[in-house]
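Running log. JK asked me to keep both predictions on one page so they can be read side by side. First protein, sequence followed by its tokens:
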Amino acid sequence: MIRFFFLSVLILITWATVVLHRGVFPSPSTSIHPNSVDKALWIPKETIGINQLFLFGAPQDRGYQAGKITKQLLNRQERELAAIMDNFIPSRILQRGLYILLMRWFWGIETFFEPEFVDEMWGISQFTTNELNYIADPLTRQVGYLGIHEVGQMFVDMHLVDMGCTLLAAPKRGQSNSWIIGRNFDFEAGRIFDEEKIMKWVFPDQGSSYLSVIWAGMVGGVTGVNEHGVYLSINAAGSKDFSRYGTPSTLVLIKALQYARTAEEAIEIIKTSQLFITDIFVVVDKLSPLYRIEKSPLKTRIIPHVDATIISNHLIHADFKDDPVNRFRKTELTSVQREKRGIELLHRHPNPTPAEMLTMLRDKQTASDSPILLGNRATIDSLIATHSVIYDTEKQTFYVSKGPSLVGESLGFDLKRSFALKHPVLINSLPSDPTISVTRYFEINSSLKQLETALALLRKGKCLSAKALISQSTSANNHYLYHLAQGNLYECTGDLVSAKLSWQRATSLNPSYSKHMVYLKGKLNL
């Protein structure tokens, strides 16, 4: 028995060692050109309001430029992501086991990565911290970070996290095939992704120049426009379709920005790409309809729009009507609620100006007659967007939120002149949110985090510890979670009458998710 145990351990160690060696992402050949690296331009947010990074030349040169200039931000980001993992899985042994399993699962994935993107990631990896080599080597970590979008959406469909993005689009009256597009990118992986967002301007040695709104070290993109006026963004979605291997959606988006001169060319790139997960791509150029591309690992469905539309996080094509994952997103999450509210707003503003579009992106109601709900996930602006953009396809003007979230002003950029001069050209800015101050924003977000912790403590019967956190969370007293937690606290201390009053109050404040309403109704029936 002892021999069997030791033999099993030896086999496991041998297998893990092989995985660790073969799981390392293969490095490309190196060919950095120092003169090209020196051309990079960095303008910190203290100068303009949003960090600006201009990159030039071959992929490895661009990666090396980006890594060298943003090294401090890059290392801070990695540490914050590692801290999230430590909180999610406290045991380093279990973490290591997970990393080994993931490495084994994704053997061979390198064939789905364009060599030029690997080259750029390699350049960035030369400036990452050695502190996190226990996770993987620097290049493998850079590849892994590209999967945050994919993993995050898998967690959504596994009921582990909740998130979503919203896009509003309206044709410009009197202008054939011209659009005003507004989009919130909701992402909760640390304050740094909002505070230190980067407008990354890329002037590659091949293909078209493009801009993407992203963060330090990110080779892929989620929102961008190229020099020809082709706009692309991603809204997460979900379906039962599965693929073990594929290209991260963020890299597909960047490939389309770099190599498409029209919306139709971008669509062709998306169609021929193999994805891991299901996403909604939005594509439009200066003369095209707005295309909604619903793409899963097995299907690509293209829906052109010529009228105003809203895109949230569920699929609308008939081929996905009975898909169980899509049905879950429609019935259990906030996608349909945000869609309905967006339709109301677009009916009210059929030909919006950029300022009116920003007002819609900042909307904090679930319906016209509902109260303002700060931090409620069923609203278009739930205070979690790391960036918000507005794009005028005719004028090629692009507005980006300074932060935090959508609270501060949005800076306007003339894209045509910026690409021509290889330097950001500012136009007018749009004002700060009149409905919430920066101080109030941080108070609400802090209170909501405290309430989530308090609810976890109450599930363990730790009444006093939860009471202290709830008493510090009064900034969120118009949020249903505050009254849900108060009800659970009263229940914890034996006061069921007061508990039911709090739970009843919570039901009147538009719970974001159906699971919360079901939970509250169950409590009220005690």
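And the second, directly underneath as requested:
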Amino acid sequence: MQSFPLRKSGKILHLLFAAGIFQFKICILLFIIILNCPGAAQTEYVRADNPVYNFLERMESLHLIDGYNSFEIPKTRRVVAVYLSEVIQNKNKLDDADKKILEDLKIEFELEIFNILSNSQSLIGPGLYDLFSQKEKYLYFLSDSSNANLFVNILGEAEGIFLNSASLKTSAFLPSIGGEIRGTFLNKFGFLIKGTNGFVMGSKVAAAARKDLSYNYKLFETEDEKFFDETEGYITADFDLIRFKFGRDRMKIGYGNIKSFMDDNSPLFDYLSFNLKYKFFSFSFFHGKLLGNASVEIDSLSGSTNLIEEKYFGYHRIGFNISSDIDFGLGEMIVYGDRPLDFSYLNPFSFYKTIEHSNRDRDNAMLFLDFNNNSLKGLKLFFSLLIDDIKFQKIGTGWYGNQTAFNAGFKSYNFYPLLPLDIHFEYLRVEPYTFTHRLSRNSFTNFGYNLGSFLHPNSELFFLQINYRFSHRLDFSAGWTYVIHGANPKNSDGSVKENAGGDILFGHRVFDSEETEFLNGDMEYYRRLSVSLTFEPVNQYFITLRVINFNDSLQLENSFKETQTFLKLGIRF
């Protein structure tokens, strides 16, 4: 096992602390500016990884709330509070664990639900501050029903990563520190600024096992670089029926655990969004800036320069809540690049496919439909179909251009309330060449990473997960993932020998076969067994243990067998 460079830890911690303090400079200036601005709360967004979304999805399946749709997250604190208020009215139907979870959520969202902060405490300000209190903790907060609402937190995290295989045993320790400021003013406008800085003690190979660090530019800029950083931030305008947002945070789009449209597989990106919701009808739109193909230019005077192609992504969806149990939606996505921002795709109310034609077929437009049924209490059924390209007269012929992705599954809460056990199952099938494009800049990727799931085209995935709530603060989950992939056969030098449509970065070429069958190519099998345990002994103090076992059979008779262990401690105050 590789040891940590502890002798340098004091100096590095000092630098890390200084970097974390630097993250607050802009935040403090903003705090001074808006301190006296009139306003209220509730327009900020709840992070996509907040457990409240799992809770609300369970409540939806149990028919304890109406109108909730999990296809697009994150949602605003105001929207989340509306659904929590509905759960409060039905709290007598909850099991013991969920009753206590609800009590915790009533503290976390007490301003939005009750317009009070009696269960919140501030380190800076009057009153006692108890680090081990079950109250909501802040470095500082300001709340006035006729003025601004402002919340400041310090974020601390320490994670150990351990890799164990026949050929590699290594580890890394990753401490980080940062801050977050969020607030709302004028009762309509909200903002968030978040920044973190961390460093790697130990192996960068182990650190790269953490998904968000695998593409971190700062960390892998040079061989000796040990620091990494990340930031999120946005400004919002919420007019009840209509919401606008500009900034950067994590979005997830799709039903189930495996998000085939938008997941956390690729780097964060900035976007402009517009949402409208009225009774049974909803409309969503966003347009984002991605990272395209990368290259390096060497100059004898200035040295190396990173070159990144311009690339953009557009999305819009019309949703219909037919009844309290049935939702369906229709939408489009567009990827284009190697030119400036195209205003024709900034119009939310236009058909991307038609615009693509009028733009002389230079882009990659996709259609999709999704469906969610909740008629049987405790059982959520869902499916989605994406059409990248299709010719109906060639269906069944093996034509490479019929490119689709299909996702279906269920979430069962049928043991409720006798047993706090959830069962999730999903199936995802991605046809050959789906998400690819003949022009590489138009692939469904951000910096080479699939915008949705980790799957390459020409694959199918089976996913099963069980969740068990030992208590309101102790969750256990176990998941099994099985993937079959038809990889592009390769030559001994690594070049593509035959294009089977199995690489998202490798589209169809003029000399490739016009016909291809599903799972043609070199067969690969990916097997993942994961278990995780999440414990929150004190409000806003988290301990997470996650173990993943990889057992993959790859092309050219290669294999990959490894166990990855992640132990993370998090604190927010």
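Observation for JK regarding the second prediction: The first helix runs from residue 9 to 22.
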